[in-house]
Amino acid sequence: MQMNRDLSASCLEVDGAFLYYEMIGDGPLLIPMPGANGTGTLYEPLAAALSSHFAVALYDRRGFGNSLLEPPGEPNEITHLRAQGDDVARLIQHLSPGKPATVFATSGSGAMAIELLQSHPGLVHKMILHEPLLASLLPPSARVDIKRRMIEIILAYGASGNAKIRRALIPFMQGKRDQQRLSRHPHFERLSSQPGDQTELFYQYELSLVIDYDFDVERLSAYRDKLVLMKGVDISPELCSRPLISLSKSLGVPIIMTPGGHNGYITDTEEFCQKLIAAASSDKATWATQPVAGYVSQARDQEGTCKKTTVAILGAGISGISAAQTLSNASMHDFLILEYRDRIGGRAWHENFGKDKYGKPYVVEMGANWVQGLGNPGGPENPIWTLAKEFGLQTTYSNYSNISTYNRDGYRDYSHLLDEYDEAYDVASPAAGRILTENLQDQTAKAGLALAGWKPKSHDMEAQAVDWWKWDFESAFAPLESSFVFGVASSNLTSNQFSDEDNFVTDQRGFNTIIKGMASKFLTEDDPRLLLNTKITNITYGREGVTVYSSDGNCVQAAYAICTFSLGVLQNDVVTFSPELPEWKKTAIQMFTIGTYTKIFLQFNETFWPTDTQYFLYADPTTRGNYPLFQSLSIDGFHPGSNIIFVTVTNELARRVERQSDEQTKKEIVDVLRNMFPDVDVPEPTDILYPRWSTEPWAYGSYSNWPMGTTLEMHENLRANTDRLWFAGEATSQSYFGFLHGAWFEGRDAGRRISGLLKGCKGRNSTVCGPRKRYPVLHGTSPLADYSFVNGWEVSSFYDSNDD
């Protein structure tokens, strides 16, 4: 190390080594533990920023830099993780006798820090773990895969030097933005050019130990009050983020979000230090209850205060806005809306695409695009259609009968199969209703349709294309993956109640115009109750209130909260809950499914397809659902003369397409179009655009589906509140899951119930006030006695056939 800012240097003899260290600053002792670099040089900018608050000890780990092994030995003598922890313990005893120290560890030093805490807890005031590599908390398959790939890299580049190994391993540790920012930082440049770089010792002798490191989380929980968990705001790879989230959930310790990514202590030193100082200075890392605005909410006992409100609404999609409007209509205006993105609208999201003859781009919808059910004479009207008319939303009738059918040889009329499906559905629909009303067991939609006469053969690709068009096009899942009863019921509730007519939104202001219009009735311009660009990281809830933490370090305390996150966000543990959600709630979240529905827009320099047709159905010769449905926008009522067509893909193909490049997708689509129109010289598209729903961290999918085998009670658990934390969104709608109007209804219901609770449920009945129903225990339909040899249960721990 070479640092010249009021520092002193010395050596400490420990068992088997001499530790070199340098001191800077005044105050309580803080020791940053080096990771792969092995030397204190890594933390010099951090130490300088902390020096007015702490006495910082920068040291070289044994075998690295100026810390020599004694007697000199083989490199593997430095690889004992406990020895690394013991070394820091000796440093603390030497530099701060009788007083514990704060220890900061990141990346590869996380395992060493845990050894220190578990072996010498009395020497540690605070243990700050920033994105530690704790692979034992990954799923076993992911852990094995990561280790295998790392070893392959080290073996392949071992003879080429540290620089190549480091470059090859970077994607395991750093996100792209982190890499870019770090590569331009002057301190990183100095580290890279440092003479005598010994990181090969870590790669060759320590990395495997770190990846293989196992520890007892239960044992560590005894020291949870000493633990501080930190994660960078920038996206980090799985190895750096997923174990930390798992540890947070297991220990009930919230994650503090810090600036930057895996190397934020270098790229964002000053801001990072503010977080570190606050965490190290706090006397507690636990949670305390404090009164908030006449109610009781959870509050973190550390520096800084939270915004206080009566209701926190998490998400500004139509469900969140509907909830807020309902509260406002009930004269309850004390709420805050927290939204991940820089706009309201949620999955009603549009983008500019292509250009018209004047060079002006068109607006196309990435997500919600249809108003389903325009109303029956004398019957109820879809609230989305009511809003569309109120705000003058431009739409065009979707004529589903205006469809042409194709296969790999071009146009082929197999429209008779459409009629066959419709005839079967007319039989299946009342059968599904009978199963529901007579409380019979559900079946897959595939089985229900087959019993009604629709049995597409696996090799009949034209029938498979029709099957996709009639079922997947709406649900984003195949009939085999869907509940017969609830799939039919949801579709029928919309079409029979509101009509089976749908309109396609073409408004150049975007579909979310209606959501903005709703919000304009109770939010003013720049309303302080709308908090955009707020990435929620933790929700701490209980019987007395809710506290919501965000990545910028801020928090909101509320008497109640309404979580409108998509099912995909809940399933992917994007946000931690403290305490963990109850088992019945977690089970319900995982039982239901979220589909991926991807529209891929293409613009050409000409409209080479028929201009009198809305839909084009394609039967791929080998793969069901391979770019199966094209819809023209270059026709009257849509965007005539635009030369725009879009193709819809769902589920597995959608997820694959969303993970590949635009160029690859473009090539695959053009190949399909050339099969469909063999007599046309199909040109290359001039533009292509599509969303990545399955990878968007604020969505992780398009909309939910009701899988076979999940009951109404299971869905009620998905919908139910946990203490004062409520849930809303299209996924929680039993009648209209997957639909925009489902999200609208659920937001309204949550708003009504909470406003009723706040008013003491006066004048309200139990159906619109009070907690939602839940089932902590759900029993199956088969008693234990039925699992018998007599019934074909050949091998059983419940029954001994020798007893007969």
TrEMBL record:
Domain Serine aminopeptidase S33: 33-138
Binding sites annotated in the UniProt record for FAD: 319
InterPro entries named among the record's database cross-references: AB_hydrolase_fold, Amino_oxidase, FAD/NAD-bd_sf, Flavin_amine_oxidase, Flavin_monoamine_oxidase, Hydrolase_4
Pfam families, sorted: Amino_oxidase, Hydrolase_4
Enzyme class per UniProt: oxidoreductase
GO biological process, one term: polyamine catabolic process
Residues of the Amine oxidase domain: 318-754
This protein's record includes keyword GTP-binding: no
EC number(s) per entry: 1.4.3.-
Single GO molecular function: oxidoreductase activity
Keywords for the protein's UniProt record, in alphabetical order: FAD, Flavoprotein, Oxidoreductase
Cofactor needs: FAD
Superkingdom of source: Eukaryota
Record PANTHER family: AMINE OXIDASE, FLAVIN MONOAMINE OXIDASE
Family statement drawn from the similarity comment of this UniProt entry: Belongs to the flavin monoamine oxidase family.
Entry protein name: Amine oxidase
Lineage start: Eukaryota, Fungi, Dikarya, Ascomycota, Pezizomycotina
